[in-house]
């Protein structure tokens, strides 16, 4: 079965690339995507123009077929990388982690990406460094560029835009003063939208309001010492979710970040400290009608510190060592009753997670054509739930989170301590002037997340509405091997890749015999094929890319849930003197390999094809217009990994549908 699956995927890859052998720039990482069209305009302007017509910053990752975006509402698209999502995808915002405050992931970490400054986005799928922790599913790296002064003392931008489907509105901008050695920047923005319509004309509950403001600054001394600081706040209001029984009238995020470093020896040292606080309210009555009111108040606090030392003692050798510590606290309570004074569940019972990690890695260029390296990392993770004994409910129905764990799993041990050792080796061999072979083997260990271990959503009347974490879960152990063959010649570039991930103690969310949503460890295997082929002559460029992943529950001999189907993306771009027009064709195969027992798959999903157009054009100096027509043919479609639709006003939809035909336009001024 595995061999037949790989053969079929390879055949599809080659066929797709042979039929349309056109390319733009390599799509291995989103930052390469963002700078693919630069003839006649700056990379920064290209990035700002693209962000201006993207409904949410993370949506720019949809150009990578190995990434699927799970939709629950108008905001909070949650990335699934190579068939793994949620806690398996690590999100780093300028090197820091910001945990979400919603147990149901209304606010995944990617919802904190800045729309005003359009950070560079990169997706990493294999370990090439361990300084931010091991990769089990994927890492989304967001990097905010420093202001570019170009000989002036003031720089900035202003963007105003909107969309017709959902009546979206957008305004954001930035202003910076200084020079390369010292600068201060202010940035902020506001965007909102009403419910949009899908391809059938049905209204989808996706309205939202989002505002952000940030101040960052930097100073660099003549000897190379530097210091950078950031203060930011984001406020989300009245966010509707068609894929949930609740909406989010309020979510506030406050971030503080401080970084300093200096040259030392044959490299440099870097110290990064951060703090992130998120407060979240969700209920079922502020933005919809309800007969029985419910409200959940939740919060999360993150504190972190990371110290790294990078050295290059000679032209062949690079090595790095480092240590980091991170503390997190999650607390969430749900209230019910006419006056919302009855405590019905302690969803996150005051959970603390303390993590300390150290890493070391070294890379050596054996010959000019061959580079070899590897690294090792140790993490100590301790978790506890201080409020696991807090009683909710009343009388004979009184319960606690500890009672729920004992009732479902028979476990009375709440505190957990994990000792995780991860490592990788990689090689990059350029065996011809146009062709390389990259091999990466890794062992990555992930501690289960706060929801997987400690969620305690209890319903005394209906077991199918219970959702209980498992404190006794073992850590996930990923054994991954990846082979890629990137190459480039005469305007062409290509990158076929094949990978396999054998997972011991994979954390599976499923349902038990009473239909309670539970977690357990299984042995699993994920494997996939990816292919890219492209060509460019400067004015015309195109890219064909395909990704396929298969997930197997080896304990029960069935499919893993939430595995995306085969996806193919074809783009064609024309550019001339700053003008650019792009056509994109997104195809997905039907997905019928599901796990209905888990409750995670809304059912099988049909295949789809979506055609998008976009462009940007300079009007006068420092002023440009960008536009996009998404879903040109007004199809009704939804990614397989999107949440099940729960909207009573659109009962025909199986999943939360994507928008129908949508016209977006924006003006961007840069000075």
Description:
By secondary structure, the protein is mainly beta. Helices cover 7% and strands 54% of the residues. The chain has five helices and 37 strands. The strands form six sheets. The chain has a 22-stranded antiparallel beta barrel. Strands 1-2-3 form a three-stranded antiparallel β-sheet, with no helix packed on it. The longest helix is centred in the N-terminal third of the chain and has 18 residues, at 2-19. The chain is globular, with a radius of gyration of 25 Å. The termini are far apart.
Describe the structure using short key phrases.
5 helices; mainly beta; 22-stranded antiparallel β-barrel; globular; three-stranded antiparallel sheet; 671 residues
Poorly predicted parts: 1-40
Strand content: over 45%
Task: Name the structural class.
Answer: mainly beta
Distance between the termini: 58 Å
Helical amount among residues, as a percent range?
Answer: under 10%
Let me know the number of strands.
Answer: 37
Radius of gyration: 25 Å
Report the major sheet: 22 strands, antiparallel, barrel
Rounded average pLDDT: 90
Number of helices: 5
Global geometry: globular
Could you give a quick summary of the protein structure above?
By secondary structure, this protein is mainly beta.
Detail the topology: elements first, then pairings:
Blueprint: H1 2-19, H2 30-34, H3 43-52, E1 67-70, E2 78-81, E3 84-85, E4 89-93, E5 120-124, E6 138-143, E7 154-163, E8 168-178, E9 182-193, E10 196-197, E11 203-204, E12 208-220, E13 226-239, E14 247-264, E15 267-283, E16 294-314, E17 317-336, E18 342-367, E19 370-385, E20 391-392, E21 399-400, H4 401-409, E22 416-432, E23 435-446, H5 450-454, E24 456-457, E25 467-468, E26 476-484, E27 487-489, E28 492-494, E29 497-511, E30 517-536, E31 540-553, E32 558-559, E33 567-576, E34 579-588, E35 608-620, E36 623-630, E37 662-670
Parallel strand pairs: 4-6
Antiparallel strand pairs: 1-2, 2-3, 5-6, 7-8, 7-37, 8-9, 9-12, 10-11, 12-13, 13-14, 14-15, 15-16, 16-17, 17-18, 18-19, 19-22, 20-21, 22-23, 23-26, 24-25, 26-29, 27-28, 28-30, 29-30, 30-31, 31-32, 31-33, 33-34, 34-35, 35-36, 36-37
